[in-house]
Amino acid sequence: MRTSDKTLLPNAHNDDVHDPSLRAFPSLSQGIEEVKEIGKLSGPTAVTGLILYSRAMISMVFLGYLGELELAGGSLSIGVANITGYSVISGLAMGMEPICGQAFGAKQMKLLGLTLQRTILLLLTASFPISLIWVNMKRILLWCNQDEEISTMAQNFIVFAVPDLFVLSFLHPLRIYLRTQGITLPVTYLSSVSVLLHVPLNLILVRYLKMGVGGIALAMALTNLNLVLLMGFYVYFSGVYKPSWVAPSMDCLRGWTTLLSLAVPTCISVCLEWWWYEIMIMLSGLLPNPTATISSMGILIQTTSLVYVFPSSLSLGVSTRVSNELGARRPARARVSAIVSMVAAAALGVIAMGFTVAIRKRWGRLFTSDAEILKLTAAALPIVGLCELGNCPQTTGCGVLRGTARPTLGANINLGSFYLVGMPVALLTGFVFKLGFPGLWLGLLAAQGCCAAMMTAALYRIDWTAQVERAKELCRDSSSGAGKTTDDAPDVIDNELAITETEPLIKN
């Protein structure tokens, strides 16, 4: 089939790779249609994020209920857990996202099941060394000059969180496996059920069994375990697994090159951003009155986590849309998804800034009544809001890059923005210029502004025609070494295998 022929694509209605629309700005009707498609994915994902956020809020409330020391120790422990564990597991799992998304668009369904198996094995393997680090966390914290009482409390928390690593090794891949097929609403419903059980679990473990901060950590792991079991039941009884089912075999131990080439850079990109926030907690411990500054930092990170739900959901939605459309050889639609999502991200940034400014004097009271903590929180919240003006486009841009299977570029942008720009600014304003706690957040503001500018420039330069060919190569390379377990897909998508032009396959 000639590359210059319109029959290169599944049918005559699909976007031609040389279509002038690859250079034009989307029309209003195209934008509205794309908002609907992204909304089908990002809407339920955002609701799920809010539900899971409520679980984190419940945990923070129970930490505050136990006392100021417990709140500081738990906040520090969660920060360290994010640096050393949660960010790694989450980042590695995202490596499967472009493979599954593009394979679904190309109708290579068996590749989804095989990639799910490989990713679960990868995450389980990574969980073992991480758990060893967690067991010895107190020594590491003391070596970093953290307060001994806070470090002891953090150790008590993180030891009971170790099972959560292995639970998340199943939870993250299952969510990505379903989302890349457009299945989002069931995950929202199941997340609601699991979170409803989170409060009674905390009451039993913390109040009645007197397990303290360890009980709160264990309740988090058990809540995630409940969600994994519920999702497993859904996948089995709904039959959604059947088109992509691959019997476990030695095939899942082969052909890891493509997965690792995506998982490792994605992990680095995620970690670089997550680590920044957690390093801020560590730096807070070096300021005067570390108990108050660490507690306030924990509250503020919970605030950013709440706001982050929306750009993160938009990022996940556009990543799925872009990867599906590239896999289906529709570059113009992928480009429209990227443009519409970035416009929506800019609007989200303005809304987020208004929200944080409006709640600056009330938000901290949800967690504590300590006057010093409340003062620090109120002073930093407006800066947090300004950060969201850059964070929302940056997060969404990372989603576009994941959809095009180019996580290395995102990692380089995050490295340059957060550590070559943001970190020096934070150290200068926080310690050299004596601005203290707000100064650390000014460093984040500088990082997010730089990151958003670089991300926008990177997206502007994408060659969408080339990304279609890369998607075809990605599916072929990911299927290599799998024997007969994957679909025998042709180099180009023939008409009888093509996705029809009706609508993208979005299942709720």
Terminal Cα span: 36 Å
Shape: globular
Counted by DSSP, the helix tally is: 17
Number of domains: 1
Strand and helix order: HHHHHHHHHHHHHHHHH
* Average predicted confidence as pLDDT: 84
Task: State the secondary-structure class.
Answer: mainly alpha
Quaternary state reads single chain
> What does the largest sheet look like?
none
Total strand segments: 0
Model regions low in confidence, pLDDT < 50 over at least 5 residues: 1-17, 481-508
Radius of gyration: 23 Å
Q: Which strand-content bin applies to the residues?
A: under 5%
Helix content range: over 70%
Descriptive notes:
With 508 residues, the protein is mostly helical. It has one domain. 75% of the residues lie in helices and 0% in strands. The chain is built from 17 helices and no strands. It has helices at residues 28-66, 68-93, 96-105, 109-135, 137-143, 148-159, 162-179, 185-196, 198-208, 213-238, 257-284, 290-327, 331-358, 371-403, 407-432, 437-460, 464-479. Helix 2 crosses helix 6, helix 6 packs parallel to helix 10 (213-238) and helix 14 packs parallel to helix 16 (437-460). The model is unreliable at 1-17 and 481-508 (pLDDT under 50).
